[in-house]
Amino acid sequence: ITFRNVIVKTPGKSYVNGLTTSDLGTPDYNQLLIQHAAYIEALKTCGVEVTHLPANEEYPDSTFVEDTAVLTKKFAVVTNPGAASRNREIVEMEPVLKEFYDKIYHIQSPGTLDGGDVLQADHHFYIGISTRTNAEGARQLKEILESEGYQAKIIPLKEFFHLKTGIAYLGHNKMVVAGEFVDHPYFKQYEKIVVSKTNEYSANCIRVNDYVILPKGYEETQRKIEEAGFKTIVLEMSEFQKQDGGLSCLSLRF
Ligand code: CIR
């Protein structure tokens, strides 16, 4: 929740041909670049150092850097992304992580894991099993995290695409939850900010230092987060939403 650094990557023109399950239409590349630039500006407002990587046309979804790694203060875990077209995104990310980390673990095949399926809440991690993260990938990450003194729980997802599609941790024991996580026993101990069905997209928000960044157009969620005591920044995310992406997916924060 207190972060010094973020890594982001400009989307390439090939972005419009990336993976998606939504039927919101083809992204507008110019709007996309404007939205990405605003995202970076918001992070700078939060006081982090931004490592900004150039676009790679070979990987249409590679702006969603979150899926390539799981980062803590002391070590990095390079994932093994579950979508074939995205798997090699890690080859470009690893050298960048080496500039910040001496200790780097890897998720190994046949284990697969996307960073979007991993949520940290203080000393606890939650790992979703999804169409991208399999049981073996989740098991490997749990083992790594436990060996480093963290606790980890594995959650098979029912409806959400990635774990963090429906949940966010804001610190101070406050958890933003939607859909299948609202009544999930694993999140009983948290003070919950419940996101309603029509506002589900806004469950993917991020706390970065003094701010919570959330998508534009979800006033009910914004109000609840502000009532919980947080300052907010809202960002237009339409062109990312078209490719199943949210705010957390666009950066690695550490
Ligand atoms: C994909 O299907 O992989 C991308 N179009 C969206 C990835 C979103 N990432 C995330 O939720 N962490």
Automatic annotation (TrEMBL):
Species, as recorded: Ureibacillus yapensis
Keyword terms: Hydrolase
Pfam hit, one: ADI
Residues annotated as catalytic: 162, 249
UniProt signal peptide: none
Domain of life: Bacteria
GO molecular function ontology, one term from the record: amino acid binding
PANTHER family found in the cross-reference section: DIMETHYLARGININASE, DIMETHYLARGININE DIMETHYLAMINOHYDROLASE
InterPro entries: DDAH-like (IPR033199)
Family according to the record: Belongs to the DDAH family.
Name of this chain's protein: N(G),N(G)-dimethylarginine dimethylaminohydrolase
Lineage of origin: Bacteria, Bacillati, Bacillota, Bacilli, Bacillales
